[in-house]
User: Fold this.
Amino acid sequence: MLTTHPAPFTLDQIGTGTARFPSGVPIPTHTDQMVDPYFKSKMPKEHQVDCLLFWPQLSGTYPGLVLLHDWWGLTGQMKDLGARLACEGYMVILPNLYGRQGGMVTASDDVAAALLERQNEAQVLTDINSCCEYLNTRIITKKNIHGVVGYGMGGSYALSFACQRKRLRAAVSYYGKMVASKELLNYLFSPVLYHQAGKDAWATPADIEQFRCTSTEYAKRVEIHLYPEASQAFCNEMKPSVYDADSSTLAWERTASFLKACFQGT
Assistant:
């Protein structure tokens, strides 16, 4: 078994909470709420993004991370990953990307595939961007010092979002599909770390090779690591048939090092 580096914080030093805010419009601040006597009774027109929050409780300011769940929804495993990332020294926000579908969570691959099919990517990317804007309202979060980490479906969104938000500092994609058009990679500004499952029939080797070639052509900072014997979702302990403990541990260590390098000096 591979050994892991000691995180700067332990789980009992991590605070947790929830957040709810409108998507695609300015985030209401605490002051806005205080001066508006009708704030609590207003029926918002915009979609409301429901999120979980994880942060180190030691006084200070921290880079922000948006954690994007896989196609099974906001599962207990994703919540554990949120707390674990916070232990690395980040303010983590974990949005429910299925909010427009009732916040569904499933263990069925068929149901998950149907949920993904009904997703509107443009709306989801707007929700993710609003998560970054919400982080900017938090006193303990460094302003516009943000990264995104996604798994599977969330890993696909992480790549697309990295081609959309210029101020993003880091993007990590675990076995996500490539962006719809390779030309979009010309708008990629942040460094990217991609974890490739060698036995993945969803994000195919041909797709990843094109991603590699295009990122080289456009001189983008993309780091790809291959886990030859791993399958799609190899980091998901809730899927024993595909979970690969050694590959998962190695990918986590690489993620932690990558994020630390991207945020160093901020």
Remarks:
- The beta strands are 14-22, 48-56, 62-68, 91-95, 141-151, 170-174, 192-199, 222-231.
- The two ends are 33 Å apart (CA to CA).
- The CA atoms of residues 192 and 222 lie 5 Å apart.
